[in-house]
Amino acid sequence: MSDSPAYQPAPQAPAGAPAVVPGKTLGIVALILAFFFQLLALILGIVALNQSKGTGYSNAPAKWAIWLSIIFMVLGIIIAIVVLSTASFVVYSN
């Protein structure tokens, strides 16, 4: 007989992989793009939200991406109008 310790068998791994929310990665990408490319982020956010809705999941990053894209696009349009109208006023006032 040897004095070596008796080893216990290794514990079993969990049976299934964790559930993956469809469209979540696309929603995160859209959220990041919302700060730089609003139109592309809006499109990707809508696609990600539709993918998640189809399977019954909620996709918060996609919703945030949609809202931020809309807000930033509206702000960009307002700023462009103000800048262009100010520039044309300065050019024609001289």
TrEMBL record:
The chain crosses the membrane at residues 26-49, 70-92. Keywords: Membrane, Transmembrane, Transmembrane helix. It comes from the Bacteria. This is DUF4190 domain-containing protein.
